[in-house]
Specification:
Elements: E1 3-16, E2 19-32, E3 36-40, H1 47-55, E4 64-72, E5 75-76, H2 82-86, E6 93-96, H3 100-103, H4 110-122, H5 126-139, H6 145-148, H7 158-170, E7 176-180, H8 188-205, E8 208-213, H9 216-219, E9 225-230, E10 233-239, H10 240-245, H11 250-257, E11 269-270, H12 298-302, E12 308-310, E13 312-317, H13 326-337, E14 351-352
Parallel strand pairs: 3-8, 3-9, 6-7, 7-8
Antiparallel strand pairs: 1-2, 1-4, 4-5, 9-10, 10-13, 11-14, 12-13
Helix pairs in contact: 4-5, 5-7, 7-8
């Protein structure tokens, strides 16, 4: 299979008054046709900036430094002008954002926004476009689509609005859908419905999808592969089942432990990842996770581990002493002796989810 999307060594730096923000720092990844790749990491790890760079919404100049390349189906997007790029938007690559209000026009009816997008890319007569709009709204599970096309965004709930943005994104049958935390602003039951809708549409239409989220648990059953981001870098990547069965980065393991079981009661104990997320103005030396890693050794503080293979090229990670290694076992044993959990969290510091 040839990759539909290839990002190679993508770098985005913002030159600010306070210094240089290393938002995306050498990210490489590939996405095959029809594949779902989840990009997961805590907030501030560079997920949105990376996604916007892929879309071409972040460009160099005016204090923004970019490097690396993004190739879509043989076309190097990062070499195109804004005008050339815009031919890909909607028609080939579509983007869904966290807050549907930011992508919907508050003063235009839903139907108008949908038909505009359809007419723009397909040059069908308006009446036909309106009929397609109704069909699209039906396909994203909106009730009474004939009525919805006459409504304004504010007349719909958050979940319904996100269904509308999905319908707009799908209106031109894109081959790649970039979904940046598409459900983070919604409440839990609606989140699951929207994610299931996306998974269903993705499979039905055979689109590739880059699903960006801070919540590892939501992609477990909804992605083929996962790339874990930390401080602007990919720190582990693997097929989803492999990642869950055998995480190698202590950060990935910490993310998994930070996740309460879905079926658990509301007050399930959540082990928070100790320490602060990294400051991208001053990324830590050595392994970027080392200041927070309870299992870090001297080498981790000075030398950054490369992204290396864990048995297969499909599973790669950045860690000197990965989960399961003898050094890792020893460090865990030492933590237990010190009266903290094996993963290094002070036992009294556990937070209770409310
Ligand atoms: N325009 C900008 N100027 C300066 N810093 C920015 C800008 N956009 C994003 N950042 C910084 O880049 C880092 C990564 O942000 P982001 O990609 O939004 O993280 P995530 O989506 O993973 O939460 C953050 O530290 C953020 O403050
Ligand atoms: Mg984000």
């Amino acid at each position: 299979m040839t990759a539909l999307l290839t990002a190679e060594d993508v770098v985005v730096r913002f030159h600010t008054k306070k210094g240089v923000v290393h938002a995306v720092d050498g990210v490489s990844l590939q996405l095959e046709e029809g594949e779902v790749l989840a990009v997961v990491g805590e907030s501030g790890s560079g997920k949105t900036v990376f996604t916007r760079r892929v879309m071409g919404l972040v460009a160099g100049g005016r204090g923004t430094e970019v490097a690396g390349s993004v190739t879509f189906d043989g076309t190097v997007l990062t070499e195109l002008s804004g005008k050339e790029l815009s031919r890909f938007w909607g028609a080939e690559i579509a983007l869904i954002l966290q807050d549907p209000m930011t992508s919907l026009n508050p003063v235009k009816r839903i139907g108008e926004q949908l038909t505009e997008s359809i007419v723009l890319h397909e040059r069908v007569p308006k009446r036909e476009a309106l009929a397609r709009a109704v069909e699209l709204l039906r396909s994203v599970g909106l009730s009474e689509p004939e009525r919805r096309v006459r409504q304004y965004p504010h007349e719909l709930s958050g979940g319904m609005r996100q269904r509308v943005t999905i319908a707009i994104a799908l209106s031109c049958s894109p081959r790649l859908l970039l979904a940046d935390e598409p459900t983070t602003a919604l409440d839990v039951t609606v989140q699951a419905q929207i994610l299931d809708l996306l998974a269903d549409l993705q499979a039905r239409l055979g689109m590739a999808m880059l699903l960006v989220t801070h919540d590892l648990r939501v992609v477990r059953s909804r992605s083929d592969r996962i790339a874990v981001m930390y401080a602007g870098r990919i720190v582990e990547t693997a097929p989803t089942a492999t990642l869950f069965a055998q995480p190698r980065m202590p950060y990935t393991e910490a993310l998994m432990n930070a996740v309460p079981p879905l079926s658990g009661p509301n007050h399930t104990r959540l082990q928070v990842i100790p320490g602060r997320p990294p400051d991208l103005l001053h990324p830590p030396s050595g392994c970027r996770f080392s200041p927070r890693c309870p299992l870090a050794q001297d080498r981790c503080l000075t030398e950054e581990p490369p992204l290396r293979d864990a048995g297969s090229a499909e599973h790669r990670y950045r860690c000197w002493f990965p989960v399961g290694s003898p050094e890792w076992s020893q460090a865990r044993a030492r933590n237990l002796e010190r009266g903290v959990s094996a993963a290094g969290t002070p036992l009294t510091d556990e937070k209770v989810l409310t």
